Amino acid sequence: MKAEKINASFLNTLFEKGISYFENWTTRKSFIWYFPLVLFLLVNFFSFAGYEDFFSSDFKDDKWDFIFQQVHQPLKNHTDGIEGSLHIAKRAFRLSIPVIAYIFHLSNRFQIYTLQLICWYFFVVITFLLIKKLIKDNTASLMVIVSLAFTYIGYQGVGDLDGLFDSFAIFFLLCAMYFNNFFLVLIFCLLANFTDERAFLATSMVGIWWSYSEQKEGAGSSFKFALNQVSTNAIAVLLAGIIYLIIRKYLTMVYHFNAHSDAFFLGQFFGRFPTDFFGLWGCFEGLWLLVIPLLMYLFINKRWLLLALISFSGGVNLLAAFFVADITRSMTYLFPMFLVLIKYLPQLIGSKQELRKLTFIALLICFLYPTYNCQGSNKILRNSPLPIRLFKILNLK
To answer: How many domains does the chain divide into?
Structure first.
């Protein structure tokens, strides 16, 4: 009995001090504009990106070579003669970043990585502003942001040195959900679609986002389907998808573009069965403590249409993740679903203190659980913390 009281006291003290720490951050003037820099250092300390290889003069990578072929000749098909199982064989239509690099004369991987870091910086800022608007609590919002930074969703903007560009796609999807403007929604959805095909599937969740109006007054109110209020942005999402498919068809017919899909097959799922669910957990990690209760909330409160739309859209993205090689990367495209669901968090948890406790627990789990990348045939990758990485570098020398 005494031991239980000590444990309860310890946990209460941990919660109080931890939450108080983040609350103090939010009282600082304009903290959100420099907090991403602190977060960048923290992320790199616990999962150090391989900068020593990336900045080496001996660095060679076929993905970056292919990217700069696209930069120099965006309208040429560069996948001819490439084995279909290779990653670069699937990049024919992933033109957003090569075209941006072409327009702004980004001539090397360091410049593109710098652009990636800039987008990651604004990803942190915009996500905080959006979540703060939805749950109306700065402290809980900040803890959600830190939690995301310790998942692969938040890490890839810092740690992607391979030119995969998923962080760009997630950033474009976020912007399409943040800016309430028809043309911006259209442009950002197009940019996301042409960054990765999985973003095309994820834009359905952006359409769901814009198809639901903001919360009405009243404690028991819900986000009701309101075509007459916000349908223009949902139409922009749909239009972006149609334009994307038309451009793909045009590039195929006129410029003979061809994206191989040899890696998309059912054997991926059965060949690495336990790893699939390991990768699913790694998508949100501790933030599943928010996602699962929010899905249950929609079910209990009979939000059938919204639940059906989320289930269908999320299910399609989930299947795509299970049937391709890069399961963790694919899972990150569920991020728009997280934003759609988090709208309901204040209704699920009425108490601000309980909300902060739950988000703090989620943060602790995300912090303690290392950032993994599950891919291929039961392959699980992770970066070492900075002290271990430095030891390896010095030891090699």
So the answer is: 1
